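Folds abound. Consider this:
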Amino acid sequence: MSLFQTPLLRPKRLGHLFGVPIKVAPAAGLVFLLPLFLAADWQNAGWLSLALLTLFLSLLGHEIAHALMAKRLGLHVVDITIWPLVGMARIEEMSQHPTLEAPVAAAGPIFNLLIAPIGLLLPPSIGSVFLTINLIFGLGNLIPAFPMDGGRLLRAWFARRLPLPEATKRAIKISDTLILLALIPAAASGYLLLTILTGVYIWISGRWELAQLFLRPPGFAADAPTMQGQTAQSPTNRSKPPADEGDLENFKGSMKEFFHARKKNKS
């Protein structure tokens, strides 16, 4: 049984918002029970529960913003899943249209930054929590560490002139550098373990998404990067590049054809 097939992590559908199915992992619901065990009294437990509810709603709003922007651009949103402290909007065809990734990625952080000032109008006890959570979601997700939203903005910028796999590689290299640099202030501030865990998650997630690009079926169509004054060719009209002029990820054919053409060109 895979980790995500365990009962606590298997998402359950709760309903729909704006036509998008909403799923929540049972483990995320259990987070709301923690204050009952950690708080010294019922008053503190109630405050912690309210803070966690604020976190959940801010996270849900963040993912809905991604989904609504994707729908506006004509993409199909499969669902939104909420895990413990993490959310994910599954959007089909995104890798086929990398130029659309930037507005979709930016929508989530922009939502959080726009609603963050509402915390100034709320009672100080909960207003400061609301403000802090949404600033963290907004500014934190803009850090260019792929596959966070900021990393996706960076990849979309690279994808204007590069094939998507190469754009992803470059975004991951920058992400790796940022993770290493973050360890220095994290060690000084006492957040080293949290930073390492976050870095490992980002490192694995980025490479997993890169691997999915290489597992795409032959002939998979994606937005072709265009240069100034040039237009992208359609998949049917795009010629197959010689094997010695590009690498495997750019070759539109099977692996057997790739190595056969490469051998022929060398001879």
